[in-house]
TrEMBL record:
The chain crosses the membrane at residues 64-84, 96-115, 155-173, 193-213, 284-309, 321-342. It is a multi-pass membrane protein. It comes from the Eukaryota. It comes from Anopheles sinensis (Mosquito). One of its GO terms (biological process) is signal transduction. Coiled coil: none annotated. Belongs to the insect chemoreceptor superfamily. Gustatory receptor (GR) family. It holds the Pfam family 7tm_7. Keywords: Cell membrane, Membrane, Receptor, Transducer, Transmembrane, Transmembrane helix. Gustatory receptor which mediates acceptance or avoidance behavior, depending on its substrates. This is Gustatory receptor. The lineage of its organism: Eukaryota, Metazoa, Ecdysozoa, Arthropoda, Hexapoda. Its main location: membrane. It is found in: Cell membrane. One of its GO terms (cellular component) is plasma membrane.
């Protein structure tokens, strides 16, 4: 039994690692996940932190330098973009662009520094997810890791295709000038890729929690279905309880015990999910606030730029590329807001479904049957103890009587 549980945990762990492999690799490439996070050998465990040594310091130092290079490149490109191109714009448009630059750089620093500062949360969240996965599996459900992997692989593919389109339009808008394209793409594309990868990590955790809540609700619904199917047997069981002593090995009693144990475990899992959700929101809360604020500024800017582009009298090819670019940017920032809202909506919806499912229970009937089963079990054990005590007293009386007879003789 112990070996079976260990093998199941190892299997769940390997499935979990496989479902996150591609996402973690891409995030590490852009510096949004630490390099020293050991995923492929020992799971989300920082083995190097436990062992220590020169290798850990070297890896951390190189990772920090890599993050500094990315942040510095975006900051320098922003200054060059402002001094070389944006000075030609009207004052209002220039101020809106400066606001976007400030928000983008703040978000980039938050993601690049936060993934190192809060690296302990990777291990903490993973341990909790694996623990809840094992407990859900012990209740008869299983997390669909294949579904998670497929969903986020498609999401990553969509993100790659979108930014590929943005880069193509940006290259055409800059008249195929290489350094202008590098400067513009660093300011706009690279910073938003880092922001999106940070939000995808948040969406990944919420999607896991959503599936857990869905499994809990599905198990509770199956409980109500089984209980309703057994309803026509309860009258016969009550008569059986009144005329005979119920054995704990009885099929109906075992079923009631299983239901009670299942509901208790699901209640505990539901509370753990609520605690995990609060921790995830606290971890990503500042990033979410900054992202939504920046998206509001950018959406206002892009809509204003579209208004300006559509009111010009002379129309050139660059105006077309600029219009397409603005539309793509509106789609991007709207998608970033939805990337926060939609997983939260799914989680909230499943959380709120638990209450109505519990309202379908008839607690009086369930408690009566369960109490009768427990009373019957206690009565059985009491009868066994009484019989054992009576047998012991009779044997002692017989032994005393034999001793008296021997002394008389």
């Amino acid at each position: 039994m112990v070996l079976e549980l260990l093998s199941n945990k190892q299997l769940l762990k390997s499935d979990f690692i496989r479902s996150t492999r591609k996402l973690v690799r891409i995030c590490q490439l852009y510096g949004t996940v630490p390099w020293y996070l050991d995923l492929f050998e020992g799971g989300f465990l920082l083995r190097e932190h436990q062992q220590g040594g020169l290798r850990l310091w070297c890896m951390q130092g190189l990772n920090m330098i890599y993050s500094i290079v990315i942040a510095s490149g975006i900051f320098i490109a922003t200054i060059l973009q402002t001094s070389l191109d944006d000075w030609k714009m009207p004052f209002m448009t220039q101020m809106l662009y400066i606001s976007e630059y400030i928000a983008s750089n703040v978000v980039v620093l938050m993601v690049l520094i936060g993934c190192h500062y809060q690296c302990c949360y990777y291990q903490q969240f993973t341990e909790k997810l694996l623990a809840i996965t094992a407990r859900i599996a012990s209740c008869g459900a299983a997390v669909d890791f294949q579904r998670i992997e497929t969903t986020f692989n498609r999401l990553l593919l969509g993100v790659a295709m979108f930014f590929g389109s943005v880069l193509a339009v940006d290259l055409l808008y800059n008249d195929l000038l290489f350094w202008s394209f590098v400067r513009s793409s660093s300011v706009f594309c690279l910073s938003n890729i880092i922001n999106v990868l940070g939000l995808i990590q948040y969406a990944y955790l919420l999607y896991f929690i959503f599936l857990f809540y869905s499994d809990v609700n599905r198990l509770l619904m199956s409980y109500t279905v089984h209980a309703s199917r057994d309803k026509h047997f309860r009258a016969r069981r009550r008569l059986l309880y009144e005329t005979t002593v119920v054995s704990p090995s009885d099929g109906g009693v075992t079923l009631l015990y299983d239901y009670a144990h299942l509901v208790d475990r699901l209640r505990s899992i539901h509370l753990d999910l609520n605690e995990l959700l609060e921790q995830v929101n606290n971890c990503f809360g500042v990033l979410i606030v900054c992202t939504t604020t920046a998206s509001f500024v950018v959406l206002s800017l892009q809509l204003f730029c579209i208004y300006q582009a559509t009111t010009v009298q002379a129309w050139y090819a660059q105006d077309t590329f600029l219009l397409v670019y603005n539309v793509l940017w509106i789609v991007l920032h709207a998608a970033k807001v939805l990337m926060v809202l939609y997983p939260s909506h799914l989680v909230q919806k499943e959380r709120e479904r638990t209450g109505p499912i519990l309202y379908h229970f008839n607690p009086h009937e369930k408690d009566t049957a369960l109490n009768n089963a427990m009373v019957g079990a206690l009565t059985t054990y009491l009868v066994i103890l009484i019989q054992f005590d009576t047998t012991l007293k009779q044997s002692q009386s017989a032994a005393n009587a034999s001793q008296k007879d021997g002394s008389i003789k």
